[in-house]
Each structure stands twice: as structure tokens, then as C-alpha cells.
Specification:
247 residues; 35% helix; alpha/beta; Rossmann fold
């Protein structure tokens, strides 16, 4: 067993649950995002296993991160520089997180994505790539690859991201993203208009859900706000085959 392989966790009741890949915002890291999502994770503990990936690129701490999580570095970003994408590095970071969770004993299907801020943009792009793959993959291909059924996009904006190496496809066409998305918007977030643009102009309206809460640019943690988010996640998951019988 490699030195960095997590020890098996036979007492962990989430090992067989469907898995949601969680992507942190720019200037934070997986450890910080796990802490930020602690209440959401607690509410989903009997339904999903949440797995937190570290972004590939070093970064200064994001806004307000240093004051609360200043000792929790190093901080990471999904983008090497503004308006630049390195899909290979993103895929490698995600693969590392997925492999580490497999080594820890997890066996559940990869069924969803959950991202905050920059991570939400990456999640939307990954879901779009999944959608394109669904249109061309054979049944055997789908069994070997993650089969994301939905994404939770918290404070996310549209992000140009190549579908595959050498192919540039942006999430910027009305109705382009047809797989289901749950959008979580803080009504006092300075970037809310960009988050609304992702909802209204990049996603098929009939497959979107919206949760608005009285907060700024952060992950909701109060019981009332989290319950609203969790209710939408579980409802979408049942309707799209991520919970219950495998479709």
C-alpha cells in the first residue's frame, strides 16, 4: 500500500453510498471546503458520500479565506491563471481524489457534482462534458466512467473549458447544459447577476432548480437554508436515478 493511501474504513457507513464529487472555490482547498460543507454533509450522510478534491494549482488565499482559514493552507485554484484552462491537470486532480476514495474502501457510483464559486464553474463544465459523452458512448463506456446525473452549483458563473484536449467548448449557449442542475444563490452575493446568468442562459430551464438564501458569497450553513438545498438534491437524485434503483 502506498504511503499516501488512506487506511480502509470498515466502520464507515457511507462507503457503499452513491458519491458526489465536491470542488472547492478558488484560493481554498479540499480541507476547507469540507469544513464549509459540514452541515450539508451531515444532512446527506444517509444518502450520499461526499468526496472533496484538491485543485491542481497553487494560489493565494481567496477573499476572506485568510482571516478564517489562514493556517489551513496551501491554497489551490482550478485555473493556472485568469481565463486560462489546463484540462489535463484538472482531470488528474479529480482522478487522484477518486482513486484515493476507492483505496479507502468506497464502492458507490459517482453520480453527482457539487461546486462552489470557481469550483461550480468547473462542475458545470464537467457536467456538460458528461452530457456530450452520453450522446456518443456505448453502454460499456458508461459502465467504466463516472456517470454524473446532476450538479449542485453554488455561487457559480459560466466558465469556458475545453471538453477534451485541443477542443474549446464554452458553457455560454442558452439551453446548452441539459442535465439537471441545482443553483444555490446568496441574495447578498456581489456576483449574483453572473450566477443568475449561468442559471438562465447556460442551462435548460426545465431541468434547473433554484435555492435562494439570505447570505453573501459563502456556503449556507443554517439548518433552514441547508434543508432547502438538501431537499432539492434528494428530489433531483431520485428523479434522475442517482438514488434508488440504478437506471
Amino acid at each position: 500500500m502506498a504511503p499516501d493511501t488512506p487506511p480502509p474504513s470498515p466502520g464507515d457507513l457511507t462507503l457503499d453510498l452513491p458519491r458526489i464529487l465536491c470542488l472547492h472555490g478558488g484560493g481554498t482547498n479540499a480541507r476547507i471546503f469540507r469544513a464549509q460543507c459540514r452541515v450539508i454533509q451531515a444532512h446527506l450522510i444517509s444518502s450520499f458520500r461526499l468526496v472533496f478534491a484538491d485543485a491542481p494549482f497553487p494560489s493565494p488565499p481567496g477573499p476572506d479565506v485568510d482571516s478564517v482559514y489562514g493556517e489551513w493552507g496551501p491554497f489551490r485554484s482550478w485555473l493556472p491563471a485568469p481565463k486560462k484552462i489546463d484540462i489535463g491537470s484538472i482531470d488528474a486532480s479529480i482522478a487522484a481524489a477518486c482513486s484515493a476514495d476507492d483505496r479507502a474502501g468506497a464502492t458507490g457510483r459517482w453520480v453527482g457534482l457539487l461546486g462552489f464559486s470557481q469550483g461550480a464553474g468547473v462542475a458545470a463544465s464537467l457536467l456538460l462534458r458528461q452530457q456530450k459523452k452520453n450522446q456518443s458512448q456505448t453502454e460499456g463506456d458508461r459502465k467504466r466512467c463516472p456517470d454524473y446525473r446532476f450538479a449542485v452549483l453554488m455561487a457559480g458563473r459560466a466558465l469556458s473549458m475545453p471538453m477534451d484536449t485541443g477542443t474549446d467548448v464554452a458553457v455560454d449557449e442558452p439551453g446548452l447544459l441539459q442535465l439537471p442542475t441545482i443553483h444555490v444563490h446568496g441574495l447578498r452575493d456581489p456576483g449574483i447577476e453572473m450566477h443568475r446568468s449561468l442559471l438562465h442562459y447556460c442551462c435548460q430551464r426545465s431541468n434547473t432548480r433554484l435555492v435562494e438564501w439570505d447570505g453573501d458569497h459563502r456556503v449556507p450553513i443554517t439548518t433552514k437554508d441547508v434543508a432547502a438545498v438538501v431537499a432539492e438534491i434528494e428530489d433531483v437524485a431520485f428523479k434522475w436515478g442517482a438514488l434508488g434503483k440504478v437506471l
